[in-house]
Amino acid sequence: MDTKILYYKKFEGSVKSIDYVNWAIHMLEKDFSTQSLNILSSFSEPLNIFEVEDYFSRIIRELSLQEPLHEECAKYYLYDLLSKIINGEEDVLEIAYEIYYVTREHFTNEELSVWYDISEKIDDYRYGDNITKITKGDLIAAIVSEAKKQLNSNLNLN
Fold it and tell me: Rounded distance, CA 95 to CA 28, Å?
């Protein structure tokens, strides 16, 4: 897990103890190293959130890392989600919902409002009458197309 994604989760209040452990492992893979980082990366569940956050704070100090801004983390998280869609890493429909949530909460850019329409189509497909007879394949194709468009356009996220 990247540092900005971990901080985004912290800012949003959705961070879990295991996220810190995954972050520590990711940092070791990127050739960072401190004793606290080694210790945190070796933790296994069940985890104590207070102990995990204490080690995280130590690591931040030891590596002289600066806390990024919430907005910066939200932008990075959005790009990460768009990339996951294009790479087919996870459930595209769930990622599209998450993108809608992030854009609704953090951005006012009109180009990003398309995620509201996409979330409505997903809801109609899953729970509504599906009057337009949209298929899951059609939804995924539209979502992938929009993700590619937005990544290629280098959105100026406001």
Answer: 27
> Both tokens of residue 133?
């007879």
Q: What is the CB-side half-sphere exposure of residue 47 using CA atoms within 13 A? A: 22
What lies within 8 Å, CB to CB, of 15 at 6+ separation is 6, 9
The whole-chain average pLDDT of the chain stands at 92
Residue with tokens 């606290």: 36
Cβ distance 2 to 35 under 8 Å?
no
- pLDDT, mean of residues 95-109: 90
Q: pTM here?
A: 0.87
Asked whether the predicted pLDDT for residue 35 surpasses 80, the reply is yes
In which residue are the tokens 């932008």 written? Answer: 75
State the DSSP string of 43-108. --SS--HHHHHHHHHHHHHHTTPPPPPHHHHHHHHHHHHHHHHHHT-S-HHHHHHHHHHHHHHH--
Cα–Cα distance between 143 and 114 in angstroms, integer? Answer: 10
Backbone angles phi, psi at 85, to 5 degrees: -65, -50
Q: Look up residue 46 and give its DSSP letter.
A: S
pLDDT of residue 155: 56
> Which has more confidence, 60 or 90?
60
